[in-house]
Design goal:
The protein has 164 residues and is mainly beta. Helices cover 7% and strands 43% of the residues.
């Protein structure tokens, strides 16, 4: 069991965080919501969802944020046991540092960022079953020393995966 938990933790840690910009001296606060197109998923159908990211304060987020680049999915059985996908997804290289923060997408509570996910379900789920899925958004701000890192997790959604 411990090996499985370490494997899950390592798999979500492999994806690079996305660049962000938030006020110095403030803790970044993001609200993350995973919005699947449907709560029923065929293993042969594309997993179609969106991750909605909002902030109480105006912050800047990497416009190239995507699955395996700032966003990972934490999948567990219905009772909470973490699971690994049938085929691990290919990682995304980190984007080059954006030195001019005006190129970051401005996000707040009135204007959230919506990141669309269209993925092979085998890179998310181990097979047919009922799963709890949460989106994890990982960000960093490299312009400050030490570099600031934050991670935010969505509430879980339940997805029923069938063999069709």
């Amino acid at each position: 069991m411990i090996f499985v938990l370490m494997l899950i933790a390592a798999s979500t840690a492999l994806w690079p965080p996305a660049q962000a910009d938030w006020p110095v001296g403030k803790k970044m606060k993001l609200a993350v919501v995973l919005e699947p197109r449907s709560n029923r998923q065929g293993i042969a159908e594309e997993f179609d969802a969106a991750v909605r990211i909002a902030s109480a304060d105006k912050v800047g987020l990497d416009p190239a944020m995507s699955f395996t680049r700032g966003i990972s999915l934490l999948v567990s059985t219905i009772d909470g046991t973490p699971v690994s996908p049938a085929f691990p997804p290919a990682g995304s290289p980190p984007t080059p540092p954006i030195t001019d923060t005006t190129y970051l997408t401005k996000v707040d509570h009135k204007k959230p960022m919506l990141v669309k996910l269209r993925e092979n379900p085998r890179t998310i789920f181990p097979g047919a079953g009922r799963y709890r899925v949460r989106a994890i958004v990982s960000v960093f701000d490299w312009r400050h020393k030490p570099v600031r890192y934050e991670q935010f997790t969505s509430p879980s959604v339940i997805i029923d995966v069938s063999n069709s």
